Automatic annotation (TrEMBL):
The keyword Hydrolase applies. InterPro entries: Acyl-CoA_hotdog, Acyl_CoA_thio, HotDog_dom_sf, TesB_ACOT8-like_N, TesB_C. Its EC number is 3.1.2.20. Belongs to the C/M/P thioester hydrolase family. CDD domains: Thioesterase_II_repeat1, Thioesterase_II_repeat2. It catalyses: a fatty acyl-CoA + H2O = a fatty acid + CoA + H(+). This is Acyl-CoA thioesterase 2.
């Protein structure tokens, strides 16, 4: 297992403090505030410790920004243990304040009706450059004070299908974006379990999804006078998925209104639609604040 993958596994492995209470550590992924994907992955992992079934849906709200310098406590409420479905509520608490809440449902696989939309026709991952290679071509446009942060390698491997944007000089583009994503190394041994694979999927489901709605406006998360934040996030697991194999993440934005943007994502693996995501994000122009 590579160092970055090991760090990701450790980030998504929680310490049990008491029955239904867990503690997760934070890491600087995107800046001073805790990366939303970290909280999603940790919350899903906390709930998974209380059942042996795989998750099929997660519905979450981000209430306050998290501090990367402080641990996060996850409290799990066992709402239901039914024959078909297991329901859990998770609260993430930091410095005595609830910063995040989620409802998560688990269910064992079963046979039934089977249909999916047609998979998109994109180049294969082996035919694409990695995000790191593409960033090399842009680093000269990045202020020197930010170049080290810009070039820092992510804990997951990305291969964009669309070109990496110059976030300091974005241009209006269609509200679509797609990339392939997976962990750098294989999940093996005791780490090769459904709960951890799903937690990693939740972690990387938050990368670039919200910013899809910024593209038609010629804006990026670094644009001056723009306030961006995730408001809510939903994740559906349709079929078994491995986080350490290439997953096509196809995203689109359908509307921006009232300083918010709505984004949808579809994850494909081996031609199968394995996961879907929905996220609404805050996109507030500070000059418009009253």
């Amino acid at each position: 297992m590579t160092k970055l993958t090991q760090e990701l596994v450790e980030l998504l492995t929680l310490e049990k403090l008491d029955e239904n209470i867990y503690r997760g550590q934070s890491r600087n992924i995107v800046g001073k505030r805790v990366f939303g994907g970290q909280i999603l992955g940790q919350a899903l992992r906390a709930a998974s410790y209380t059942t042996d079934r795989p998750a099929h849906s997660l519905h979450a709200y981000f209430l306050f920004g998290g501090d990367v310098n402080a641990p996060i406590i996850y409290e799990v409420d066992r709402l239901r243990d039914g024959k078909s479905f297991v329901s859990r509520q998770v609260r993430a608490i930091q410095n005595g304040r609830m910063i995040f809440t989620a409802m998560i449902s688990f269910a064992a696989p079963e046979q039934g009706l089977d249909f999916q939309k047609e998979a998109p026709n994109y180049p294969a991952p082996n035919d694409l450059q990695s995000e790191q290679q593409l960033k090399e071509s842009l680093v000269r446009f990045i202020p020197k004070s930010l170049q080290e942060s810009f070039m820092r390698e992510r804990h997951i491997e990305l291969k964009p299908i669309h070109d990496v944007r110059n976030f300091f000089n974005p241009q209006p583009e269609p509200p679509f974006y797609a990339h392939y994503v997976k962990t750098h190394g294989k999940l093996m041994g005791e780490q090769d379990n459904v709960a951890l694979h799903q937690a990693v999927i939740a972690f990387y489901s938050d990368f670039t999804l919200m910013t899809t709605a910024l593209r038609p406006h010629g804006l990026s998360y670094l644009s001056p006078h723009l306030q961006c934040a995730s408001i809510d996030h939903s994740l559906y697991f349709h079929k078994p998925v491995r986080a350490d194999e290439w997953t096509l993440y196809d995203m689109e934005a359908t509307v921006t209104s009232n300083s918010r943007g709505l984004n949808y994502g579809y994850m494909w693996q081996d031609g199968q639609l394995v996961c879907s995501t929905v996220q609404e994000g805050l996109m507030r122009l500070r000059d418009n604040e009253i």
